[in-house]
Design goal:
The protein is of the alpha+beta class and 146 residues long. It has 4 helices and 5 strands; from the N terminus they run H-E-E-H-E-H-E-E-H. The protein has a single domain (3-144), classed as Cytidine Deaminase, domain 2 (3-Layer(aba) Sandwich), CATH 3.40.140.10.
């Protein structure tokens, strides 16, 4: 990914923080997902006062891309409102791992802090080297490679 695309992805994740619905934690999280076609889909965390009904920003960005017919991803930027930033949680890592098998590509993960500074760059295969996805479960996802 070139520098301009990376900067655009990070800015998009930072902007998505402002769309979050976070009455419980009072912390908005933003994500921006880059597809293999070069499109960017935002997501923001959505919380509920009822435990378990919310969704992480990363998952929302994946759902946004899928709702637009895209299943093959290149990278995701996650903007977390702290100086240290944060990695995607386990559930988000699982979804990213599954879609890495759909797109047959290791998805890059860019974690940025509240100021948009990169605090970590990694990939889903580094975070989950022996993950469980469609391939391991015997599911054919080749029809989603569009």
């Amino acid at each position: 990914m070139d520098k301009v695309t990376k900067e655009k992805l990070i800015k998009s994740a930072m902007k998505a923080i402002h769309y979050a619905y976070h009455p419980v934690s009072k912390k908005g999280v933003g994500a921006a997902l880059l597809t293999q076609k070069g499109n960017i889909y935002q997501g923001a965390n959505v919380q509920s006062v009822i435990s378990g009904l919310g969704s992480c920003a990363e998952i929302c960005s994946i759902y946004n891309a899928v709702a637009h017919g895209e299943y093959c991803f290149e990278a995701i930027a996650v903007a977390f409102p702290s100086a240290k930033g944060a990695r995607p949680c386990g559930a988000c890592q699982q979804m990213l791992f599954e879609f890495s098998e759909v797109g047959q590509k290791d998805i890059k993960i860019i974690c940025v802090n509240e100021k948009g500074k990169i605090v970590e760059e990694t990939s889903i295969k580094k975070l989950m080297p022996k993950g469980y996805g469609p391939k391991e479960s015997g599911r054919d996802v080749s029809g989603y490679r569009k």
